[in-house]
């Protein structure tokens, strides 16, 4: 079946599904394969649960007029998404970066939805499956689509760009994330910059943080850019006011008081602001959108629990974001400050050095107690009496009562696999 014909069938469906546990009635089900599952084996289950069509790539499951046999289900999903994107002619904004992608995406969506019908990536479905699903969730009445793109190796962003064909793009930053896959920081910069390369090749607009030296250097001679800066008069001026703990800033002398903590969220808020300005969203609507946005999903959440103020930032971590979170905690004007830090994953050969760097940094900052958790952190060395290490979460749990935590501001941060949000139950 040609992709045009498949698209015609898709338009008669109620969206897409890839998981029979969350299947939508009259949807098009894609029987994807993974290391530990084969979606083809769920063909009949999907039909029984109400799928209108099931896309399969194993002939023995082609037993119904509702099953459509293709060479490769994943490649078909990607091709259909790319065709649908061209069919819609929707304006697409793509964003990537080492830190802050999902928060920035949500902020941009909050701002633009004040004026436009938008569709944005759900959660962090930002990979070779998530991006196609995001595009297929858009309809003819979607005026602007906001597509988050994640990557852990070279050529991945380029691949996603060729599916989504963005008209605009923004890179949050270049940090020490996925060093194992990218082969180092230079690989990270090269990989994330694939978004720039695509936009420049197609003469499309780029949004940028003009205070980021890497972005300025790469885009110095490119004309179609719109950026923000605290100091560079050639770009839109945004003034940082405070971050104790919530980020407050000014645009055109209008004060915006967010519910996001940490100076590191300032640039995320700035990006959403200037993208709103570019698309002519009224400034007071931008203010309302940003002030009403509340973080969730273990990202920069503030949780009050008796005498404790908890900064839950346990969705993920890398050396760049860990450093920013620790420095932010140290600057808070609170009496007692405590950090629970979990291992940072996907650092490859740099793991030992980067965990030691974070341990060394934490010991020097204005933080009263630092509890480091995981094999990598447990192997670091420190003479500081402020640092106590635990080889695993269970080890921390067994000794937790002896820590005697009260009347404190607490940072909880670690990679997703550490699941440090479990500390909430202990607190």
TrEMBL record:
A GO term, aspect molecular function: ATP binding
Pfam families recorded: Mur_ligase, Mur_ligase_C, Mur_ligase_M
Keywords attached to this entry: ATP-binding, Cell cycle, Cell division, Cell shape, Cell wall biogenesis/degradation, Cytoplasm, Ligase, Nucleotide-binding, Peptidoglycan synthesis
Gene3D superfamilies in UniProt: Mur ligase, C-terminal domain (3.90.190.20), Mur-like, catalytic domain (3.40.1190.10), MurE/MurF, N-terminal domain (3.40.1390.10)
GO BP term (any one): cell wall organization
Domain Mur ligase N-terminal catalytic: 15-68
Function recorded in the entry: Involved in cell wall formation. Catalyzes the final step in the synthesis of UDP-N-acetylmuramoyl-pentapeptide, the precursor of murein.
Protein name in UniProt: UDP-N-acetylmuramoyl-tripeptide--D-alanyl-D-alanine ligase
Species annotation: Lacinutrix venerupis
Gene name in the database record: murF
């Amino acid at each position: 079946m040609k992709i045009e014909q498949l698209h015609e069938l898709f338009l008669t469906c109620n969206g897409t599904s890839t998981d029979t546990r969350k299947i939508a009635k009259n949807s098009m089900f894609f029987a994807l394969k993974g290391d530990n599952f084969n979606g083809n084996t769920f063909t009949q289950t999907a039909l029984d649960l109400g799928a209108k069509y099931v896309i399969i790539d194993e002939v023995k499951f082609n037993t119904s007029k509702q099953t459509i046999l293709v060479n490769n289900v994943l490649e078909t999903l990607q091709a259909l998404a790319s065709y649908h994107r061209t069919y819609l002619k929707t304006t697409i904004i793509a964003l990537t970066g080492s830190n802050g992608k999902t928060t920035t995406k949500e902020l941009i969506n909050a701002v633009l939805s004040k004026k436009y019908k938008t569709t944005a990536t759900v959660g962090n479905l930002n990979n070779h499956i998530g991006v196609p699903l995001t595009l297929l969730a858009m309809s003819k009445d979607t005026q602007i689509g906001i597509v988050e793109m994640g990557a852990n190796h070279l050529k991945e962003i380029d691949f996603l760009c060729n599916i989504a064909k963005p008209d605009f793009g923004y890179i949050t930053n270049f940090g020490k994330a996925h060093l194992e896959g990218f082969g180092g920081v230079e690989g990270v910069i090269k990989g994330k910059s694939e978004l720039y390369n695509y936009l420049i090749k197609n003469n499309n607009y780029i949004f940028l943080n003009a205070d980021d030296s890497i972005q300025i250097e790469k885009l110095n001679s490119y004309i179609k850019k719109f950026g923000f800066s605290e100091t560079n008069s050639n770009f839109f001026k945004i003034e940082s006011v405070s971050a104790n703990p919530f980020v407050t800033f000014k645009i055109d002398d209008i004060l915006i008081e967010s519910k996001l903590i940490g100076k590191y969220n300032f640039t995320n808020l700035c990006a959403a602001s200037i993208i709103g300005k570019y698309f002519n969203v009224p400034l007071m609507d931008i203010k309302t959108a940003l002030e009403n946005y509340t973080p969730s999903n273990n990202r920069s959440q503030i949780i009050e629990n008796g005498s404790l103020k908890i900064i839950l930032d346990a969705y993920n971590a890398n050396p760049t974001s860990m450093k920013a979170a620790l420095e932010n905690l140290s600057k808070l004007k609170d009496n007692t400050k405590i950090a629970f830090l979990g291992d940072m994953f996907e650092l490859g050969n740099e793991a030992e050095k980067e965990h030691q760097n974070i341990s060394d940094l934490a010991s020097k900052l204005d933080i009263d107690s630092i509890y480091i958790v995981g094999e990598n952190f447990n192997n670091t060395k420190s003479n500081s009496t402020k640092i106590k290490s635990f080889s695993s979460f269970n080890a921390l749990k067994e000794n937790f009562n002896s820590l005697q935590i009260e009347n404190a501001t607490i940072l909880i941060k670690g990679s997703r696999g550490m699941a440090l949000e479990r500390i909430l139950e202990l607190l």
